[in-house]
Write a structure and sequence with these properties.
The chain starts with a strand and ends with a helix. By secondary structure, the chain is an alpha/beta fold. It has a 10-stranded mixed β-sheet, covered by helices on one side. The protein is globular, with a radius of gyration of 17 Å. The mean pLDDT is 96. It has one domain: TIM Barrel (Alpha-Beta Barrel), CATH 3.20.20.70. Helices cover 31% and strands 24% of the residues. Bound molecules: iron/sulfur cluster.
């Protein structure tokens, strides 16, 4: 696939998980099959007719371009920006990038040929598609979504297969916590992670309150989730979305 649907390309810092603070170029694809109640990028849900790119890295000035975007255009931007400053990696995010696996694969192969590390942020609900790109991804950020969250559709077997593809690699699992998150679901998620890869890092991410109905977890909820992980033999990190706190993009 030499073209695909983007929402934007921009430069910033990774805001989630163990690589928070790493300088990255972000390639945000448009389209998502889920509607998570806590989603902070609902503008990425539908395939967009156009996409935007910073005129220069970090600029507030954008240029609009038409979708579908050619892989070559994306790679030219990554090449240009990575000659101007050093980046830790290029992050493919969304939306759900794995709705366009061939496009992700072509961009990731091209990014690697430019000497860049590749980072994939995925909902962890599309194991067959993850299998199509996993070998060209250096760092995997896998959501393990709790099924009780409105708008989430996940299957535990699919989650297992995603974890198996991430096993032994630079990867981590993110679990978003809301105020009413069920510790039993966290326990099941942590036990699954532990059974597939005992060394896999779990990040409990208190939700960013994107709307009135989305309440961040109180101390008791976080403590219960942490205990649920520890009971499964996993010591989690508790990390909020750093980019929201810092005012990064
Ligand atoms: S998978 Fe990601 S982009 Fe899609 S709805 Fe959920 S949080 Fe939003």
């Amino acid at each position: 696939m030499n073209r695909g649907y983007l929402l934007e390309i921009f430069s910033s810092y990774q805001g989630e998980g163990p690589w928070a603070g790493a300088r990255q170029m972000f390639v945000r694809l448009s389209g998502c099959h889920l509607r998570c109640a806590y989603c902070d990028t609902p503008e990425s849900w539908r395939r967009s007719p156009s996409w935007r790119v910073e005129r220069t890295p970090g600029s507030q000035d954008f240029e609009m371009r038409a979708n579908p975007a050619p892989v070559r255009t994306v790679l030219n931007i990554l090449d240009d920006w990575s000659r101007r400053e050093t980046y830790h990696s290029v992050s493919f995010t969304g939306g759900e990038p794995l709705l366009q696996p061939a496009f992700v694969r072509a961009m990731a192969e091209g990014a690697r040929a430019l000497g860049l590390k590749t980072y994939l942020d995925t909902s962890g609900t599309l194991a067959d598609r993850l299998a199509q790109v996993a070998d060209v991804i250096d760092i995997l950020a896998l959501d393990l979504k709790l099924p009780s969250c409105p708008g989430v559709r996940m299957g535990w077997e699919d989650a297992r297969r995603c974890l198996e593809l991430a096993r032994g690699r630079d990867a981590f699992v993110k679990i978003v916590l809301l105020d009413d998150s069920d510790p039993e679901e966290v326990a099941r998620a942590a036990a699954l992670v532990r059974s597939v890869d005992p060394r896999m890092r779990i990040v409990l991410q208190p939700v960013t309150p994107v709307s009135e109905g989305i309440l961040p977890p109180g101390g008791r909820t976080v403590a219960a989730a942490r205990r649920a992980c520890e009971a499964a033999g996993v010591e989690p990190l508790v990390l909020p979305q750093l980019h929201k706190l810092a005012g990064w993009r």
